[in-house]
Amino acid sequence: MTPEQTLAATAVNAWRIYLERAEKFFFALDDEQLQKEIAPGKNRLIYLFGHLIAVHDAMFPVLGLGDRRHPELDAPFLTNPDRTVPTLPSRVDLQRMWTEVHGALNEHFARLTPEEWLQKHTLISDADFAATPLRNRLSVMVTRIGHMASHLGQAQIAPK
Amino acid sequence: MTPEQTLAATAVNAWRIYLERAEKFFFALDDEQLQKEIAPGKNRLIYLFGHLIAVHDAMFPVLGLGDRRHPELDAPFLTNPDRTVPTLPSRVDLQRMWTEVHGALNEHFARLTPEEWLQKHTLISDADFAATPLRNRLSVMVTRIGHMASHLGQAQIAPK
Questions:
Q1: CB-based contact (8 Å) between A8 and chain B?
Q2: Cβ contact B150:A149 at 8 Å
Q3: What residues contact A15, with CB distance under 8 A and at least 6 apart?
Q4: Which of B17, B43, B78, B132 is the most buried (most CB within 10 A)?
């Protein structure tokens, strides 16, 4: 691998490590556990599970890699707070969507070249990107590691 | 900047973004707020504050950038759980150590070349590194973004 390829692959590897931790955590929860709040009055585990799928699914258009697979997750898990949408997808459906979204995303991540990682994402204008080239696709991915870790950290303090 | 430099700088920039968020959060807490638990029976905010300083201070030897500044933080914030060490540093001392450790760390981060980011860290053997070159200094830094985000996410759900 060239140094560029190793740098990009290192970041992708960190994404995979956190993704595997999150998957291991959320896939081990049964229906009753998914209904638990992380702390009194705070989000339920099922909300964080769906929220991560919704945010990661939105990475396809943000990174210019295609359309959302599951825009229907936005209302229950992104644009509205927990407990305001009466019917949520089942545990099995969420697991299926998690696997589908991340399988497709990780295929893209494995194929992107260093030059492609350095291209602009779709949430920034050409003019802004010219001024701040660090706001590239890689920055979105690394920031999403932080986002995922943040919610996983919260989920891990939920009562067993 | 070369593509290598931009790739490394993008990751460093994500580190800075999360570090600034964490600093803004913890520096805004008064003594009473620092004593609050993130959730019933869980770590207090002061423990997470000191824990982040201790873990980031340990990055100097892990990354081969010099000695720890504050090894005395390990006992109260790293090797023992919260509430087992009777006397903790004051809020002002913690803020001072936070600024000192991150100031020095960020100076190193701004100077490291892409080739230096790709060198092995000190927790891995030469043989293991030869087999898994993604376990380099950059991987430590990106993984610490996840670690910091995880605890910041927990801290943010503490009762106000």
A1: yes
A2: yes
A3: A109, A141, A142, A144, A145
A4: B43
The CATH number of the structural domain formed by B3-156 is 1.20.120.450
Which fold, A3-155? Four Helix Bundle (Hemerythrin (Met), subunit A) (1.20.120)
Q: Look up the ipTM and state it.
A: 0.96
Q: If we measure between CA atoms, which residue out of B63, B114, B102, B124 comes closest to residue A7?
A: B114
A7 touches chain B (CB under 8 A): yes
Closest Cα in chain B, distance from residue A135 (Å): 7
CB contact under 8 A, B134 and A9: yes
- Position B69 scores a pLDDT of 98
Query: Smallest CA–CA separation between A149 and chain B, in Å?
Result: 5
Query: Is A14 in contact with B133 (Cβ distance < 8 A)?
Result: no
* Mean pLDDT in consecutive groups of 10 residues from the start of chain B, 160 residues: 97 98 98 97 98 98 98 97 96 98 98 98 96 97 98 95
In angstroms, rounded to a whole number, what is the distance separating the alpha carbons of residues A131 and A135?
Answer: 9
